[in-house]
Write a structure and sequence with these properties.
Elements: H1 11-26, E1 29-33, E2 40-46, E3 49-53, E4 64-66, E5 72-74, E6 76-81, E7 86-90, E8 112-117, E9 125-135, E10 138-139, E11 145-146, E12 149-152, E13 164-166, E14 172-177, E15 186-189, H2 190-203, E16 209-210, E17 213-219, H3 222-228, E18 234-241, H4 246-250, E19 257-261, E20 264-265, H5 269-275, E21 284-291, E22 294-301, E23 303-304
Antiparallel strand pairs: 1-2, 1-4, 2-3, 3-7, 4-5, 6-7, 8-9, 8-13, 9-12, 10-11, 13-14, 14-15, 16-23, 17-18, 18-19, 19-20, 19-21, 21-22
Family: Belongs to the peptidase S1C family.
Protein name: Serine protease HtrA
Pfam families: PDZ_2 (PF13180), Trypsin_2 (PF13365)
Amino acid sequence: MENASSSGNPLPELSDNLAGIVERVGRGVVAVHGRHRIPSSGVIWRNGVVVTAAHTLKREDGIEVTLSDGRTVAAVLAGRDTGTDVAVLKLDGVELDRVESGDARLLKAGHLVLAVARADGFSVSADFGVIGSAGGPWRTWRGGQLDALVQLDGGLRPGFSGAALADMRGQVMGICTSALARGAGMVVPAITVERVTDELLAKGRVSRGYLGVGTQQVILSDTWIKKLNLTSNRGLLVNSLAQGGPAERAGVLVGDVLIELDGAPCRGMDDLYTALGSGSIGQSLKIALIRGGERTECSVTVGERPQRNSCR
């Protein structure tokens, strides 16, 4: 009888390779019991450290993790970052090997990938698919910065948020989440997970700058553009102010239109988030704005964004 290779059928070999990747990566994937009913998944990122999707944790105490050997152990929440949807758990006294990570920035649309989860709390589960779209650095709607935009070709099954996303070499490119794009699974790249994990382990939170303004993008009139010699036809209308926040203390008013931040155009939220990186906290930010049809300027001392669900 001919074997698979001699008959020219590559599918059995491919099937065995996929199963081998799931088995190998699955040893570093855990079930995270931080909500009612279905657990989420998590990945052993470092010895004694598990990363998971932050939105799946509905409590801060009483979290448990089921390991690949069937043991269920207590976990301590070191911190979470809603901007990137990464949470870090610490497992005391548990010696485990970390997964082998790769560079998600090398992924392209059409690449074959495997999501490896422990969705039922015990056995490993897998979902086979392709990368739907890929691109450069991407700012999430929650203000977090991902080092690459990697979107799956469909949504995630229940329990697959926090799962490992592996390429065909078995390297973990990041963790999966359903919280950053409506109706589609996204990947938090490994390089982003590493950066956020460092900060959460060090201080329990990810620091971001804060002005205390609610804004919406507006199109500026041709009259204003000519009168004020503007380089962009877009700005941010201030529609609310946090009481006692940095912007209110600096004299910003509801109805002002932000047009420049430290001399750079303020055309939308991406420009605002760029100006409010962690290095901006405590620094003076020069703001140009339109008030009553005239250009005016003020300086704001950037604060630190208040932490919701902070753990330390």
